[in-house]
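seq:
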Amino acid sequence: MNTRRQRLRWLETEKKLVVGSEEGSALFADVIAFGHGIQTPYLGHLAPEFKDPNSLSFAGRHWPSDTPANSFESIPVPASLLTPYFDPQVRIPLYQAALGDELIVSHHWSLDSLRLSDVARKRELMELLYMAHSISGGARLRRALESPGGGP
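struct:
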């Protein structure tokens, strides 16, 4: 762990890079500036519906190359994940309480702010509450391209 910390610190001090982490581990909070996946972690491995092409929650394929469905289509969250990840009554914001003003946090890069259609509004409110950065990615671009006028 010390070797990893030294490498992160070296990138920050010697190379003048902004260093972050996919998980934003509290063990590295003093050597990283951001963590993505803290607000909404990667969920693709937690429900079989994400991999089932017949499911409304199918995460999508990796093509066409210019707008792959796995990045550009909004999908609903499988029912089994709604309560533990998106219900504010059971979501305990321990990370935000301990490190809320120490790190810039966001959703996992694969789950931009509009990707999960049925909880988009709830996620937006949690972004405001926890000062988490919104990620505007593929789903937003897809909506813009499909709207009248056809451009962002």
